[in-house]
Design brief:
Largest sheet of chain B: none
Radius of gyration of chain B: 23 Å
Number of helices of chain A: 10
CATH architecture of the largest domain in chain A: 3-Layer(aba) Sandwich
CATH topology of the largest domain in chain A: Rossmann fold
Largest interface: A-B, 58 and 46 residues
Radius of gyration of chain A: 63 Å
Oligomer: heterodimer
CATH superfamily of the largest domain in chain A: Succinyl-CoA synthetase domains
Structural class of chain A: alpha/beta
Largest sheet of chain A: 5 strands, mixed, barrel
Order of helices and strands of chain A: HEEEEEHEHEHEHEHEHHHHEEEEEE
Structural class of chain B: mainly alpha
Shape of chain A: rod-shaped
Shape of chain B: elongated
Number of strands of chain B: 1
CATH class of the largest domain in chain A: Alpha Beta
Strand content of chain B: 5-15%
């Protein structure tokens, strides 16, 4: 037999030429298995279906919009190539696409289940957010609405917090790695809490937040992480791992500022009132206070001084009382004198001494009036009265008769 | 980041402590008066700080424009 003998290399080279020439471009649908990401950044996996399998390679730098996972249905696009050293052929992939949205959800569910089993979502490991963070880290895209919403909300609620912003890729092949780096950088900067997120988008847009890389980064973080990915209805793996999930970037900023500046100012007013009341109450209990507050010497001096003042006060009262008594006695004396004077002036006073009042024609006679014979007079004495007639009238000095009874009486 | 001055949170906690001690009033009056004065100074300083402060934003790092930068440490 004189067969044509080839070397292994030559045969492989021939196979390589045939295959590569025959299949310069293929689209293949299959399930990913044995997925491996090499240190160098290259990714290797096997694409299989029920009846066959084929090796695939995805060189570093060829982007996929999500993290490949075993079990995923994907559609790869590439060319066939032969790897002579191992004697096998493989698809050199240019791109890998999910075979359908359903597969992304499948991948999502798979990772979710895996991480749940690993304890990533355990409520016990969720940390509480600081009530007054000094430094708030933000990892998001510099160009979205998310960063604007976060910054304005933080400023409105608590401008005292410093914001550390780390512009971050949130979409595309490198997003997951960049998010992980951003979290590490913000943590080492000294942030008290970190907000990570982006605005809404399709499931592919948000995919970085559904990767193991980001889940691990959040899980490893030593400071609390608030996730705010997409809209309220979008829930990502990152949301499950984060300590708190916010529905929107604005809500995340609110969660990081539970105490607003106004709250502190109101609290300070209340504090001032309460503390003032407390110290005043304490100062008011003066008896105890003086004992504690003053030195014994001062206290004794104060006591002596106090006694002295009390003595002086007592003396004053005594003097006042004496003065008042004297005044009262004087008054009494004066009153008695007045009393006797009044008694003397009383028109009926002389009656007590035997004098009588003379009444003529219904009235008391005055000294200037003259008597006339025939006058009918009424005499009023102390105890009785009587009627008298004038017989004749005398001049009291010369004792001579001025009028006789025969002359007519007048009225 | 040097944190020499106490944070707002630390100051608020101190104020809360002072209030409790003043309301309990179980110390000598000299100490209570000193606490009161300390608290009032903190409250005044905080109020001034809060009413005058402006938001500070620091930007760090930055996204790399190339998408295939070699990673020194993969996972």
């Amino acid at each position: 037999m004189n067969e044509h003998v080839l070397t292994v290399s030559l045969l492989t080279q021939a196979i390589s030429q045939v295959l590569e020439a025959e299949f310069p471009l293929v689209h293949v649908l299959g399930e990913v298995s044995n997925y491996k990401r090499h240190q160098s950044g290259h990714r290797y996996f096997t694409l299989k279906d029920e009846g066959a399998q084929i090796r695939c390679v995805l060189w570093r730098g060829r982007a996929v919009p999500f993290e490949l996972q075993d079990g995923m249905q994907v559609k790869v696009r590439g060319r066939l190539s032969v790897y002579p050293l191992q004697g096998n052929y493989q698809i050199d992939c240019w791109s890998v696409l999910p075979a359908g949205i359903g597969d992304l959800y499948l991948a999502f569910e798979q990772l979710k289940k895996e991480l749940a089993a690993a304890g990533y979502f355990d409520p016990e490991r969720k940390r509480r957010l600081p009530r007054l963070p000094q430094i708030i880290g933000v990892a998001t895209s510099p160009s979205g609405a998310a960063i604007r919403d976060i910054l304005t909300t933080l400023e409105r609620r608590n401008p005292a917090a410093t914001v550390v912003f780390r512009p971050t890729l949130v979409q595309g092949a490198e997003a997951a790695e960049d998010i992980a780096r951003a979290l590490a950088e913000l943590e080492s900067f000294g942030c008290d809490v970190i907000i990570v997120g982006r605005g809404g988008g399709s499931i592919e847009d948000l995919w970085a937040f559904n990767t193991r890389t980001v889940a691990d980064a959040i899980f490893r973080a030593r400071v609390p992480i608030v996730s705010a990915v997409g809209h309220e209805t979008d829930v990502t793996i990152a949301d499950f791992v984060a300590d708190v999930r916010a529905a929107t970037p604005t809500a995340a900023a609110e969660l990081c500022t539970p105490i607003r500046r106004e709250d502190i100012l109101v609290w300070l007013d209340e504090w001032t009132d309460r503390v003032r009341t407390a110290i005043t109450d304490r100062l008011d209990s003066a008896a105890v206070l003086i004992g504690d507050f003053l030195s014994p010497t001062t206290y004794r001096m104060l006591t002596i001084h106090h006694e002295h003042l009390r003595y002086q006060l007592a003396m004053c009262i005594e003097r006042l009382r004496a003065a008042a008594l004297r005044t009262a006695e004087t008054c009494l004396q004066q009153q008695e004198q007045l009393q006797s004077a009044i008694t003397l002036l009383h028109p009926l006073g002389p009656l007590d001494r035997g004098f009588a009042l003379i009444e003529r024609d219904g009235r008391i006679l005055s000294a200037n009036e003259q008597l006339a014979p025939g006058d009918e007079l009424r005499l009023h004495r102390r105890r009785d009265s009587g009627v008298a007639s004038i017989i004749s009238v005398f001049d009291p000095v010369y004792q001579r008769v001025l009028h006789n009874g025969e002359t007519d009486s007048h009225h | 980041m040097a944190k020499q001055t106490p944070t707002i949170d630390e100051q608020l906690r101190r104020l809360e402590e002072i209030r409790q001690q003043l309301e309990a009033a179980d110390r000598p009056i000299e100490e209570l008066v000193a606490l009161y004065e300390e608290g009032m100074a903190i409250a005044k300083q905080l109020r001034e700080q809060l009413t005058s402060i402006r938001q500070r934003i620091i930007t760090i790092g930055g996204q790399t424009e190339q998408t295939d930068t070699a990673q020194p440490n993969g996972d």
